Amino acid sequence: EGVMLKKLDGIPGCKVSPSQIRKCTEKFLLFMKEHFDKLFAKMEEVLLQLVLNIPKNVLLPEDRVQEQYPYSKEEFQALQDELQQLQQQCRAEAAAEQALRAELQEQEAVKAELEKILQCFDGLENICREQGAGNFKESFALLRQSSKKLQDVLKDVEEKSRKMKQHDQLM
Fold it and tell me: N or C: which terminus of the chain carries fewer CB neighbours within 10 A?
């Protein structure tokens, strides 16, 4: 615009205003931009087709595996399905393994408690031997009978005590 204004000032009798020059340059820029965009799009298309296109007969190094092991879309989908199924099986087996480990820990805790009980019975058997009681099972049966007799005696004493209390209250 500046160059045009200077050149037009040098021509006598030319009366073009700066606003008219501005409008014309804007139209020119818009026209050039549209044509440039169209030409650039065509040039990009031509470059992609002719320069950057890999011909069908050329095999890139990263595509050699596909040449050795060709497959169809159906085969690929079948492999994907099988892979998904195997992943689900792996997850299920991991969950089952975790459940089995938890059960094993529980069994170990129960085993430890049972070992404590066995040690207690061994201790009782040793005590019975030291006291000359002989067999632990026989001693245990004798102890149970004695306990039952003591319970019966206790019931009798409690009943007599209750009767005495009633008798004392009545008097």
Answer: C
pLDDT in tens, 5-46: 788 777 777 777 888 888 988 999 999 999 999 999 999 999
Please list, residue by residue across 129-156, b when 16 or more beta carbons sit within 10 angstroms of its beta carbon and e when fewer do: eeeebeebeebeeeeeeeeeeeeeeeee
d(CA 168, CA 147): 31
Tell me the two tokens of residue 161. Answer: 């005590």
Q: How far is CA 156 from the centre of its chain?
A: 68
Task: Tell me the two tokens of residue 83.
Answer: 């892979």
Whether the full predicted model's pTM is greater than 0.70, yes or no, is no
HEC-encoded secondary structure of 56-85:
CCCCCHHHHHHHHCCCCHHHHHHHHHHHHH
